[in-house]
């Protein structure tokens, strides 16, 4: 039996991805696939079986290799306890005599990794073989670098591993001291390269393929075909970009207490638990007569004596005697003994001291509001992470709450780039256009409840761009720019952005809004998330709504589950659509002839035609897999405005 038959390879993808801004590293797009697919492709020919250790996004990992499913095993220890936790899970589940491991961010790992580790394991009768390479330090001196997660081990080491983990220790090198380890020297240090940051990912994305050759044997190609998912860095899907951004974003934590009215449109930073019962008493929902249902005859009119009057806000001390009723106003506290209210307009006859009621009109509980039916003392009233709406202000007021904790407002700096841009108020020189993006961005950011810093127009000049980006980064939580991220000779934005931090440049599979830059930049110890939106006025708005908006809301601490669903409406006419990309068409939705919502496209859809956006009240979202739409077909749409 070949040694391969004895080996399962476990890809370790269970980390927090801290240095990559907590993205799920294994799922990052890289050279036309996910990172984990590359590792898979390198390992598949070397072993009998593959498995992935992951702790987040398990469904996404499972879905990656749908045609040839690979098991995905989360840590059993829980709580992101490090690679040993992943190893423990792997050893428990693998079912082969040997287990090989490699990290999910090493897409260039050696084609003979497992074979060479196996040879050493046998020759040295070790429990675990580990890869080492020779590297040189800054002064040119050689040193031995161990690669502690590129290993092959006997599955029998599980017992020692369990014992080691039971002591509370979690260090790989600590555990290695407890077993027999042998080292194997590999020549090609570059093959063990880990991609730890979005910047590295992007660097190697673009590096010439020779820098890290990929084996081309038929077997590897065949395996690759089964492993690769549909990532295309030149045409990243809208959904993938949204997911990557969501993974990368971190909410701001600062909280402030504000008076109730000031909480409107802010993000609630605490769970609100009701301190009282609302309403505080059983009370009447109508103007009428409070009575006891049992006093009413089933088949004949009943006359009850009026024993008193209950006004709202003035409870009565006396209980209701049998055969009596009390006149009561809406909101009046139900007298003890009364269990329903006859609305005054339903009384058959009303005298000065009595009221007559027809049979069959009332049951116990009718027209009575129960104490606590809105909220009970101690029950959850509002969850943190929601944007406070007018109804919430009212609800908080009904609980007597005068002040709430909200997240600090997000500070967003924005500017436009381009030598051709002139600001409103300046003369429009030949060949120039007025800068409109700063105004649409201003409006969209303000609507989101951000504090905005308008940095004006920045020329296509490296020094000016760098200064603007640095200043924005030092003063804001997020930066939104427009222009300069597409391919264009005068656009320096990409280079400067990349130099200041960890920024990726995507060509998205969408229209409008194909180019997008996203990442995190730093300057003088401060950092900020960056959204480099395209320059075309429609594209800037569409990309803002599709990517920046949700990310900024997340930074503001808004619960991600609060995103509004897409609505559906009937298309009033045919729409041409190319399969394989997401298209956003500006449109007007209104009630059709039969009253059902009908949507009609607002004329020319060029990405520079801002009028189409201004006329529209929604965007029709035509998804990747969708083709031409016929008149009368149902389509998804995103409304620009809500009620509140
Ligand atoms: P760019 O992405 O910088 O190549 O810009 C693409 C197109 O959008 C060009 O026609 C620009 O003139 C136009 N554009 C860029 N920024 C703005 C802006 N702030 N306002 C209006 N048009 C813009
Ligand atoms: Mg430009």
Question: What would your notes on this structure say?
Answer:
With 644 residues, the chain is of the alpha/beta class. It folds into 5 domains: 3-231, Alpha-Beta Complex (Spore Coat Polysaccharide Biosynthesis Protein SpsA, Chain A); 255-278 and 374-407, Molybdopterin biosynthesis moea protein, domain 2, CATH 3.90.105; 283-369, Beta Complex (Molybdopterin biosynthesis moeA protein, domain 3); 411-553, Molybdenum Cofactor Biosythetic Enzyme, Chain A (3-Layer(aba) Sandwich), CATH 3.40.980.10; 567-639, MoeA, C-terminal, domain IV (Beta-clip, Beta Barrel), CATH 2.40.340.10. Helices cover 23% and strands 28% of the residues. It contains 15 helices and 35 strands. The strands form 9 sheets. It has a 7-stranded mixed β-sheet with strand order 5-4-1-6-8-7-9, sandwiched between helices. It has a 6-stranded mixed β-sheet with strand order 16-13-15-14-18-17, with no helix packed on it. A hairpin with a 2-residue loop joins strand 29 and strand 30 (526-533). The termini are far apart. The model is unreliable at 208-231 (pLDDT under 50). Adenosine monophosphate (AMP) binds at residues 416, 418, 420-421, 433, 435-438, 482-484, 486, 488, 491, 534-537.
């Amino acid at each position: 039996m070949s040694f391969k038959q004895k080996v399962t390879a476990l890809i370790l993808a269970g980390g927090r991805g801290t240095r990559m801004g907590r993205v799920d590293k294994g799922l990052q797009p890289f050279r036309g696939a996910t990172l984990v697919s590359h590792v898979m492709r390198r390992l598949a020919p070397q072993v009998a079986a593959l498995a992935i250790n992951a702790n987040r996004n398990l469904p996404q990992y499972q879905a990656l290799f749908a045609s040839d499913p690979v098991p995905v095993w989360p840590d059993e220890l829980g709580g992101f306890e490090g690679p040993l936790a992943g190893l423990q899970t792997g050893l428990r589940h693998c079912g082969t005599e040997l287990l090989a491991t490699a990290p999910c961010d090493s897409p260039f790992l050696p084609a003979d990794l497992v074979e060479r580790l196996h040879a050493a394991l046998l020759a040295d009768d070790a429990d675990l073989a580990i890869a080492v390479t020779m590297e040189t330090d800054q002064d040119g001196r050689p040193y031995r670098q161990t690669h502690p997660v590129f290993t092959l081990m006997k599955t029998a080491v599980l017992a020692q591993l369990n014992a080691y983990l039971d002591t509370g220790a979690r260090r790989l090198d600590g555990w290695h001291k407890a077993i027999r380890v042998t080292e194997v020297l590999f020549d090609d240090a570059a093959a063990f390269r880990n991609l730890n940051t979005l910047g590295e990912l992007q660097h190697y994305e673009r590096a010439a393929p020779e820098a890290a050759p990929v084996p081309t044997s038929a077997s590897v190609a065949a395996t690759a075909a089964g492993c690769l998912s549909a990532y295309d860095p030149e045409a990243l899907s809208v959904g993938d970009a949204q997911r990557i951004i969501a993974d990368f974003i971190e909410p701001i934590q600062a909280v402030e207490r504000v008076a109730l009215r000031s909480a409107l449109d802010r993000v609630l930073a605490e769970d609100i638990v009701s301190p009282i019962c609302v309403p505080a008493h059983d009370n009447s929902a109508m103007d009428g007569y409070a009575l006891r249902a049992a006093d009413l005859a089933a088949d004949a009119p009943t006359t009850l004596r009026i024993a008193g009057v209950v006004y709202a806000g003035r409870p009565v001390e006396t209980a209701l005697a049998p055969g009596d009723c009390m006149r009561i106003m809406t909101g009046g506290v139900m007298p003890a003994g009364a269990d329903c209210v006859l609305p005054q307009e339903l009384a058959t006859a009303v005298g000065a001291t009595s009221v007559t009621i027809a049979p069959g009109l009332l049951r116990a509980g009718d027209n009575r509001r129960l104490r606590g039916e809105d909220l009970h003392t101690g029950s959850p009233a509002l969850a943190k992470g929601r944007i406070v709406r007018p109804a919430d202000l009212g609800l908080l007021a009904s609980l007597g709450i005068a002040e709430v904790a909200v997240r600090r407002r997000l500070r967003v700096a924005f500017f436009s780039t381009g030598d051709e841009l002139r600001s409103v108020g300046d003369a429009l020189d030949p060949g120039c256009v007025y800068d409109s993006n700063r105004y649409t961005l201003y409006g969209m950011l303000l609507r989101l409840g951000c504090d905005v810093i308008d940095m004006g127009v920045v020329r296509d000049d490296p020094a000016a761009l760098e200064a603007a980006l640095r200043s924005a980064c030092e003063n804001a939580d997020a930066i939104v720019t427009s222009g300069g991220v597409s391919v264009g000779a005068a656009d320096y934005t990409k280079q400067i952005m990349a130099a200041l931090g960890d920024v990726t440049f995507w060509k998205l599979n969408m229209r409008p809004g194909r180019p997008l830059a996203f990442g995190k930049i730093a300057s003088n110890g401060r950092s900020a998330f960056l959204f480099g939106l395209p320059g075309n006025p429609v594209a800037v708005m569409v990309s803002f709504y599709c990517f920046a908006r949700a990310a900024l809301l997340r930074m503001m601490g808004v619960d991600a589950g609060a995103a509004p669903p897409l609505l559906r409406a009937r298309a009033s006419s045919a729409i041409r659509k190319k399969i394989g990309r997401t298209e956003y068409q500006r449109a007007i939705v209104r009630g059709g002839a039969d009253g059902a919502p009908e949507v009609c496209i607002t004329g020319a859809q060029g990405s520079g035609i801002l009028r189409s956006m201004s006329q529209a009240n929604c965007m029709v979202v035509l998804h990747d897999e969708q083709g031409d739409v016929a008149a009368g077909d149902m389509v998804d749409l995103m409304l620009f405005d809500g009620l509140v």
